[in-house]
Structure formats: structure tokens, C-alpha cells
Design brief:
This protein is of the alpha+beta class and 278 residues long. The strands form two sheets. Strands 1, 2, 3, 4, 5, 6, 7 and 8 form an eight-stranded mixed β-sheet that branches. It has a six-stranded mixed β-sheet with strand order 9-10-11-14-13-12. The longest helix is centred in the first third of the chain and has 15 residues. About 2% of the residues have low confidence.
Length: 278
């Protein structure tokens, strides 16, 4: 992971002389350069994997912090919300969190620097291909999403698969409820969450607005067109400020009525009775 970040920075920022681990940089190292500090991992969720805090310290010759500001912007552009791949094929993305402290003057090394924090979201294999099709509601919602969103978007079911791409949408089921309506029917209700990950050309917020508006006007979405069965759309909501990778920005409830299966019983062939029983 550290090496993938190093290669990305060197490729995106030609002026960087090198990207070091903390123990590798020296006083005589040519500037500007960057140092990558790797923190501890924390478990997140089955659809993400784990979260790690990484600090990047750009070092420039002691002059003006405007040079640090310029290098900081280039580092953010190179890493923030970008997909990186390790040598072993693991995929992760970096999200810029902000500065890790105040400006620093390193008199011993005749340099100035500033810490930058990134949250690294890394995916782990979970034993499937990333598409949940055993629940027919999930692919039905994914198919509907594909029909209303720009064709540059990829739609996933259940969790983020290794090698996922941006821009993309991932739907997952968060709650299921069954309510009896009568002896012959019951209502199934499922709550879904959509995680929307955009890029520079396809912003997240635009896709969130488009999907919520489409859900609000859809009323129903196709479930089985051959049998004219649909899923009713209830209470679509969006939270623009939510983390697209971890939390998801859209929630919606889908419901449908289901007939209870009728048991086969012997038919009554005849009925006899006596009108006057004493």
C-alpha cells in the first residue's frame, strides 16, 4: 500500500525528488520530497474492509510556506478519492482528511513541512464475486438504477468488490420486515442503502440528486415485467454529507404484497342434510 502511494505521487508530481519511509530520509536528501507515515488498521464493515490513517509530509527547502501549499494541493489532487492498486492486486482509495497539525520548521534539515492526513479505505476478499443475486429485489433495483443513471456508471450489488471502479453505485439491503395483511396475503418491506462514488467528471452529489429525484417520481419500479409485478417505492431520502464508501448517501424502502400459498385439500363431492332434526 505504501509503495502504491509512493508510485502514484512520483508519477503525478514530477518535481518530487523521492517519496521516503520515515527511516529512509536524510538531511542530505534532495528536496522537495515527501515522507509517508503509516498508522494502524481498524475494521470497518463487510462491504469496505478496513480503514487506515496515513500521514504524508511534503518537505521543501526552507523558504516560504507557499511552496508547501503548492505541493500540498498537488498531493491532494493525486490521492484524494483516487483508486490505487498494490502489487498484489489489492484495491484501495485515499480520502483527504485535512492537516495533521501546524506548519513545521526543521532547522536541522533546513526544511519546512506540514503534515497531511488521509484515510485509506482498503477492500478485503469476502468470498463472492461482489454481486448478490439470491435476493431478486437487489438486481431488480440495480437494473432500474442502470436505466436512469448515466451509462458511465457501474452498479454493484451487496458490497464493493475488489477491483471496483469509479464512478459507481452500490446497493445493499439494510432491513427486512414482513407484515400480515389478511389470511391470504402479507406485505414484504425492505430498506435499501445506496453508496455513490463519483469522480471528477461524474460528481457524487449530482448522481445522488438524480437518483433520489428518479426514485421520488418512479412510485414503482419493475420487479417481474412478464407477470406485471412491481416494487412500490416509499420514503426515498438523501444525505449529501454522508461518506459514500462507508455510510451511503441514499436510503429507500421498497415493498410489495405477496399471496400466501394455498394448501391442496380434498374437494367435497356432495353434502346431505335433514331439515328436521329432533
Amino acid at each position: 500500500m505504501r509503495n502504491a502511494i509512493r508510485e502514484k505521487l512520483l508519477a503525478a508530481i514530477p518535481e518530487l525528488k523521492d517519496v521516503f519511509e520515515p527511516h529512509s530520509a536524510e538531511e542530505s536528501s534532495p528536496k522537495p520530497y515527501a515522507i509517508v507515515l503509516q498508522g494502524e488498521d481498524s475494521e470497518e464493515s463487510p462491504w469496505i474492509g478496513f480503514r487506515r490513517i496515513v500521514e504524508i509530509w511534503p518537505y521543501v527547502s526552507r523558504s516560504t510556506f507557499e511552496k508547501v501549499d503548492s505541493l500540498e494541493k498537488k498531493i491532494i489532487s493525486a490521492l484524494d478519492k483516487q483508486m490505487l492498486t498494490t502489487e498484489t492486486g489489492e484495491v484501495f482509495s485515499c480520502v483527504y482528511l485535512g492537516s495533521s497539525g501546524q506548519d513545521v520548521v526543521d532547522e536541522e534539515w533546513d526544511a519546512i513541512t506540514r503534515g497531511m492526513q488521509f484515510a485509506v479505505m482498503a477492500l478485503q476478499p469476502v468470498g463472492t464475486d461482489g454481486q448478490i443475486t439470491s435476493d431478486p429485489w437487489v438486481p431488480a433495483l440495480a437494473d432500474w438504477t442502470t436505466s436512469v443513471i448515466d451509462n458511465n456508471w457501474t452498479v454493484y450489488n451487496g458490497y464493493w468488490p475488489i477491483g471496483y471502479v469509479r464512478p459507481s453505485v452500490m446497493w445493499r439491503v439494510t432491513n427486512v420486515d414482513v407484515k400480515a395483511l389478511s389470511f391470504s396475503s402479507y406485505q414484504v418491506t425492505k430498506r435499501f442503502t445506496a453508496h455513490v462514488l463519483g469522480n471528477e467528471k461524474q460528481p457524487e452529489h449530482s448522481a445522488v440528486f438524480s437518483l433520489v429525484a428518479a426514485l421520488g417520481s418512479a412510485i414503482k419500479i419493475p420487479f417481474d415485467l412478464a407477470d406485471r409485478r412491481y416494487l412500490t417505492v416509499v420514503d426515498p431520502k438523501a444525505n449529501i454529507g454522508a461518506d459514500g464508501l462507508r455510510e451511503g448517501q441514499i436510503t429507500v424502502t421498497l415493498s410489495r404484497m405477496v399471496a400466501r400459498p394455498q394448501e391442496d385439500v380434498p374437494l367435497i363431492r356432495s353434502v346431505s342434510y335433514k331439515p328436521n332434526i329432533k
